[in-house]
Amino acid sequence: MATQSPLRLYHARGGAREREPAAALGPRLYERLRQRGFNAVLLPAPWLLDEEGGTQAPRDADRALLDGAEVPITEWYRRVSAELADHGLALYVDVVLDRCAHDAVAATVGPDWYLPPAGDPARDPRQPAQARRLRYLRDGPLPPGFLAAWTERLERWASHGVTGLAFHAPQRLAGADWARLAAQLRRHHAGLQLLAWAPGLTPAMLAGLREAEFDGLFSSLPWWNFKAEWLADEDARLRALAPVIAAPPHPADTPPPARGRRAIWSAALCADGLMLDDRDERELADVEAVNQWFADARLQGPLRVAGGRDGRCTVLLRGTAEGATAALALNPSTDAQALLDWDALAPMLPPADIVPLSPPVGAAAPDSAPAAMLPPGDCALFLLEPTLPVREPSRRHRSRADGSGNPRIAVERVSPAVDDGAFAIKCIPHERIAVHADIYMDGHEQLAAELRWRAADETRWRATPLARGPNDRWEAVFRPRRVGAHEFVISAWLDAWQTFRHDLELKHRAGLDLRLEVQEGMQLLREALARAGSAADADAVREAIEQLGAQPLAADPVAVLLDEGLARAMRALDDRPFETVSPTPYPLWVDRCQAGFSSWYELFPRSQSPHPGRHGTFDDVIARLPDVRAMGFDVLYMPPIHPIGQRNRKGRNNSLRAEPGDVGSPYAIGAPQGGHDAIEPQLGSLEDFLRLVAAAREQDMELALDFAIQCSPDHPWLAQHPDWFSWRPDGTLRYAENPPKKYEDIVNVSFYGAPPRRARRLALWRALRDVVLFWVRHGVRIFRVDNPHTKPLPFWQWMIADVHAQYPDVIFLSEAFTRPKMMYRLAKIGFTQSYTYFTWRNEKTELAAYLEEVSSPPAADFFRPHFFVNTPDINPYFLQTSGRPGFLIRAALAALGSGLWGVYSGFELCEGAALPGKEEYLDSEKYELRQRDWHAPGNIRAEIARLNQIRRSNPALQSHRGLTLADSGNDRVLAFYKSTPGHGNVVLAAISLDPFQPQAARVEAPLWLFGQPDAGALAAEDLLAETQESWQGKIRAVTLTPDQPYRVWRLSLHG
């Protein structure tokens, strides 16, 4: 909101006509509102109404009743606004201008501005009774004089103390008309707030208001049922136009007492401006606490909603101005407890410590209570306070050791581990890391074991007990919260006290004489007490010794020795005989959540000009950001933005000769204006680029830059550092080659010196690293790396580690279309994500095999697949011939198959024209400008936007893990489901691979995930049709057509 402090609005629905004393206007009410934390009051316009009432449409918009007498309405505003100001409250007024009373005065009804009133409702029972008392604004362009008259009227109101206006039915005026009204009003009243009621407006209606420049839009939160995810979708649509004003939910099936604190707190989490009406202010608890917290929290950014099904909490997430994240967990049920499922939430959480806040009373954070439960109808508020990234001087190279000596206790088959710990496994903050190991020892003694883990810059280990499972397989779970390098070890030892207790209990059950065992127990206790010193656990041991030594015995000695409290004390005082610890820590790298979940859109900035033939600029890219964001993309990736060389410049369609005016390939980096740390002058300046970075951030997007280690023959490095390049025996420059192809507009650097030493060219390595650091320091945290498989692996391992030592949040995407082992090796040595073979997988068997490979260990532990549907270099044969249905198929496969997917611009327009016989685009944008109509007929923008909405709403789709193939009974239909750990979110997809013919399938639903038999039932939400279905039995008949080649359902037991 434009006000200095967030808007806390009291909605006096009855206004000056309110008959309930507690809500009546006046100093007593105003003082109570001030004390309870409100800073503004919203009233219905006090204008004169028709005598029958029942509507807020004006009979005379310029007159009001004051002390029983008619006065100019401005006089009413002057008095009331002054009274409110005395109590620190601003005056906001509800405005209805799309209708008036049937008998409205001339100044209000205007010269034929409104239609005549409807006929007698008795003649048409479909008409409401009040219809004949109203006249509605004529459709089409506004009548002459209408806007000017209302502008003049509202300016008078603002001059007499009205601070804000809340307009009803904003869709009745065009966005351009609202913009003209706003411009006129703000000319003399810059601080005037213009709000609009948006509940019930369709996406098309909201799109028509894009120009309106409202200061706030009221949301549909009052109709929310505490779990439906349409709330996040609406929030995104509203927030694209203006800040969001929210009021507490009033579900029709929930009586006021059952709404509880969750209603008012959910409004606070959703809002940029908070509104409570007179009923809320009287009935809801925590009003003062909510207003105070809301004023201090200064929430910002989009709303995210997750959970709410099958006995799980709904969780609302929003950022704060200080960089933290507020999370509200609420129980949607009024008659049963709900589980707070942290595992399902992990992909949505930033790196942070989770701090319970009060009020409301917070449930336990995940480390202290993984299965936190909320009472019926209750809520819990958490603040996710950002953690500092892990800092380490450099990535340590780890090699597995053989262990010291011959340990008595065996610790084997530790997982997860990449190449037995040679490389780091990868995860995101809060992700559940389940560590397993085989742990065993000779004999029958009992063992204890613990998992120890820490960040690389920490000296203290955190410890979590390992639990023994079948066949000596032990398990423990931890959840790192910081971005950067971590490590873990496993420690195991002989548990002498537990061995004693185990044997004692068996002998006791057998009825044996236990006097000697009691003496053995006393000996163990005395030894522990001697080790204890002043430890707190010594008290329990000392008490047990006293009880066993008392004469006569006051307690059963067996009961004393088997006591659980004593067992806990002895565990803490254990001297851990034969302890075995992993000889070398197992590495773990924690990336921010965007490393596993993001949606990329690639564009050439030089093609973004709206004017054909004009070279695009960064400002043109800024203008396109809302359009790209509207499709749901959160990463904008640009090929190289650096100066392009002139020597040997390529022409259109990769021709060897450039004509005058040809722009060349952006991968031919370097010109007299500079190299990899410079910007192509036609795009703009560094200052312009920084404005683009900031504009992207305002759209909740990030920029990704291309890091291409190649130079044009004009690159300044050739003159400055000729020894960094390769030269032929005749003294000529060695150009880049991929025989038989030669790229004479590009030369490659040489990472090593001449034989026989072949020493590293360390100055070159540092210069390339410094290029990355230059852009990092200018706001870029994501790099797509061109052809890394053609550069030395030691260089990448060193460079990525060195960058991560300073900026652990940097993401590197590997564009290595090469052999599988090389792709995996690049991931092991540090690349965050990788392009994949998905682009060429079209048949069911090969798609199924590949999806299974990359979604399961061992690959899934270190390799994050990024499913790009096309690239400027790759125009897949499938898309060249399959038309619009083919583009829909590939979009669904990519968006639903991995947490990472991307498109190269033009995909949404179904562009597939190719050079004959090649997987290359005709008139490739790599060599020329390409302006487009981004809303051309036949586009799939809406379908892409819906897929991205579905991805944002379902944590199961925000990772490459958790995928299981499902039987479809048709080799042209691929079916699979994705699930979070614990199955808190399960999504089933069926995708036709045939762009030409309808395909019928019998999809097998995973009833067993929910503990259901084959004949059981599931609730299925059709995420495309946005409808609810009840499924009986495990087989679901589905027909997929070229126009609708995929279906997506969210499955649960109860919906």
From TrEMBL:
One of its GO terms (molecular function) is hydrolase activity, hydrolyzing O-glycosyl compounds. The keyword rRNA processing does not apply. The record marks 873 as: Transition state stabilizer. Residues 602-951 form the Glycosyl hydrolase family 13 catalytic domain. InterPro entries: GH, GH13_cat_dom, GlgE, GLGE_C, GlgE_dom_N/S, Glyco_hydro_b, Ig-like_fold. It catalyses: alpha-maltose 1-phosphate + [(1->4)-alpha-D-glucosyl](n) = [(1->4)-alpha-D-glucosyl](n+2) + phosphate. It holds the Pfam family GlgE_dom_N_S. The active site is at residues 786, 815. Its EC number is 2.4.99.16. Alpha-maltose 1-phosphate binds at residues 650, 710, 745, 787, 926-927. The keyword Zinc does not apply. GO terms for biological process: alpha-glucan biosynthetic process. Gene3D superfamilies: Glycosidases, Golgi alpha-mannosidase II, Immunoglobulins, Phosphotransferase system, lactose/cellobiose-type IIA subunit. Keywords: Carbohydrate metabolism, Glycosyltransferase, Transferase. Residues 644-674 are annotated as: Disordered. PANTHER family: ALPHA-1,4-GLUCAN:MALTOSE-1-PHOSPHATE MALTOSYLTRANSFERASE, GLYCOSYL HYDROLASE FAMILY 13 CATALYTIC DOMAIN-CONTAINING PROTEIN. Belongs to the glycosyl hydrolase 13 family. GlgE subfamily. Homodimer. Maltosyltransferase that uses maltose 1-phosphate (M1P) as the sugar donor to elongate linear or branched alpha-(1->4)-glucans. Is involved in a branched alpha-glucan biosynthetic pathway from trehalose, together with TreS, Mak and GlgB. HAMAP family: GlgE. This is Alpha-1,4-glucan:maltose-1-phosphate maltosyltransferase. It comes from Achromobacter pulmonis.
